[in-house]
Amino acid sequence: MPQESRIDLSIIIPIYNEAKFINRLFDDLKKYFNTKSVEVIFVDDGSNDDTPQLIKEFEKKDSYKFNFIPIKLNINSGKGKAIQTGIKNSLGKYILLQDADLELDTKDASEMYQMIKNNNEIKCIFGSRYLSGKLKKNNYFFNNLVGKINSLIFNIFFSQSISDVHCGLKILHRSVIEKINLTVNDFGIEIDIASQIVRNNFFIYEFGVSYYFRTKSQGKKITWIDGIKSFYYLIKARFFDNPTSTNISILFSSLYMAYVGSYFGMGLGKTLFIIIFFMLGLIIGLRYKILPSAFIFFFIYIGSLLGSGQGKVLAVLLFFILGLYFAKKINKFKFF
Predict the structure, then answer these.
(1) Pairwise CA distance, residues 249 & 102, whole Å
(2) Would you say 110 and 117 are in contact if contact means Cβ atoms under 8 Å apart?
(3) Pairing of strands 94-97, 170-173
């Protein structure tokens, strides 16, 4: 009979060209996690500075008690790929994801570990740079703005209330890891993780953490381009990474709602109506299966046949609400 792993916590740290910070990071890990029940997994994502040599020196030291596991990727494959590799090689009951650049405090990571360890109801905690009164240093306005906008969009798409979806400090119970299948290889991994956790009905707790930004000259790698790319990952996670039946429902509802929108306005106004109704159709497709969605379309169509001008608009809105009511009732039956 296989023995249960003695490892309680796996700390996975993706690393790329962090020679300036890695020594201090290792010292912090010894300070807060120096126990035999912890494994520290350094995933070197194809570094071309002195990082690989420094990691080899860590292996030779005997000043730490945790199990140190260095993993080397031959080519730079992205933060997401490094995290996926680390997870596959981990044994811990809990998985802690920690960045190597020291923008986030290892002490906060230790506090998050104690919280999840002492409360069996908590399965995942996300660090948040926007909560609490802890020390912060940040003058990258645009990066900060994009992060908050992305978190807002994520909350709208997934009916959540998360303040910082992009924070690199996270701790997950093994049961969460076993339910998700990460596929994003770059910085979009944060959205991939959060969306899959929500899809599998796990509640995300948040913990306010300190934040000390670093400049590009200090090695900061994420750019405004990554911020723009994150919009793509949000759309992909919400409207494409779904079961086939859901994707069909999204396509069906968005098309018929765009068709309904074409009944209203003229010129630019008509185009705006089509866009608004199309977006509304995307949301309907996520919430309702095809048959309930068809009921909504049917009621809207009936409303469009009544009245003219403003009267038609009012009729469509009233019948749309009526269609939503019946769709909600029908949607409870899983065989539809």
Answers:
(1) 44
(2) no
(3) antiparallel
Q: What are the pLDDT tens digits along the chain (336 aa)?
A: 344 568 999 999 999 999 999 999 999 999 999 999 999 999 999 999 999 999 999 998 888 999 999 999 999 999 999 999 999 999 999 999 999 999 999 999 999 999 999 999 999 999 999 987 788 777 667 777 888 888 999 998 888 999 999 999 999 999 999 999 999 999 899 999 999 999 999 999 999 999 988 766 665 666 667 777 888 899 888 888 888 888 888 888 888 888 877 766 677 878 888 888 888 888 888 888 888 888 888 888 888 788 777 787 788 888 888 988 888 888 766 544
From CA 268, how far away is CA 302, in angstroms rounded?
25
Chain centroid to CA 22: how far?
Answer: 26
pTM of the complete model = 0.81
CA-wise closest residue to 230 among 193, 273, 270: 193
* 171: helix, strand or coil: strand
Q: Are 193 and 235 in contact (CB under 8 A)?
A: no
Say which residue the tokens 């997870």 belong to: 87
3-class secondary structure, 91: coil
Pinpoint the alpha helices (H) of 262-289.
Answer: 268-287
What single letter denotes the amino acid at residue 327?
Answer: A
Could you list the beta-strand ranges (E) of 57-143. Answer: 67-73, 94-97, 124-128, 136-137
Residues 6+ apart with CB under 8 A from 149: none
